[in-house]
Structure formats: C-alpha cells, structure tokens
Amino acid sequence: MWVRRVFPLQMADSSLTRPHDYFLLTDRLGFGQWSEGDLPLALELWGDPGVSSLIGGPFTDREIGARLARERTMLIDHQVQYWPVFLLQSDDFAGCAGLRPYKNDGRIFEMGVHLKPSYQGQGLAQEAARAVIDFAFKTLQVRGLFVGHHPKNAASRRLIGRLGFSFTHEEFYAPTGANHLSYLLINPGCPETL
Fold it and tell me: How many Cα neighbours within 13 Å face the side chain of 185?
C-alpha cells in the first residue's frame, strides 16, 4: 500500500484525503484529514451512542454534519483537527484522534480520541494519543496539552494516567452538563513555562 507522509500538514483537496493518503502513521493506524464527502464516516462515529454518550450525545445527523464542518474549518484555521484514523492493515475507519485550540490560547491545545466501540479496548486509543502528543510537541511545538473526561468515563481516566497527564481541576462541560476532570501535559522540549 502506498502511504505519503506530509509534515507539517498540507491542505489537501478531497481527492487526497482518502485512507491511502496518511500524514501520520503508527504501527497500526494511519491519520488522514476529513473531507466534505466523509459525512457517512462522521455519522458512523458520532452517531453511535457508545462514542457520544459521555461527550454530549446522542447527536442528530444535522449536529454531526455541523461537527464535520467545524473539523474541516479547524484544519484551515489552525492546522489541526480531530483527524480520522484508519487501521493500516484493512483501511477500516476506527474513529478520530487529534487536537483543537484550548480556550483560544495558542500555547495549549486540547487533545481527544474517539473510537468506534468495536475498536475500543485494543490499545488503539493509547497508540493514537501517543502519536498525537508526539506530533503536537515535536512538529507543532505546542507548550502543553489539555484533556478532560466525563467523571463516569473510567477508561479515559486510566488512559490519561498512562499518558502522563497531571490532574489540574474540574471544568464544567456544557454539552454534558457535568464537571469534567481536567488534566495537563507540559511539553518537556518547550523552554517557556506556562
């Protein structure tokens, strides 16, 4: 299979965002970019209650379409998004993992991973998250990463601990109406302090 690595991200038209055109690779995953034609994949992911229930869902098709549009705009405006991830062995769509600006602070980005239930519990979330952290710190040279999770999401809490994040506070997350546990990971290669 042909795979193209592009660092840093390059804006691509929809013909270049297919699963065979990854900008970031792990042992098992390839990271692509959302295109306008990816609404079926977005519906498959964020329309699944096993994915959306602890992030503010269930979501309507219209809300998912708006989310996809925001992800595409995020790439244009900030060179990041929650990128779609695919299994390298089969090209199956597994979910998304990526970044977005946190509170309009160019020094800190929020990181997230959303996997379809059939791909949860296989170590893929950790593999994807480690790739995103490496990309954020080495390629984008961000100063820190923020993550948060619903208090009922024990799997996320365990993953965040394995990744080395430190608990900082509870933060109200309007889509769920709950205080989410919040964490920070500082870029060890960034000389400036937060």
Answer: 23
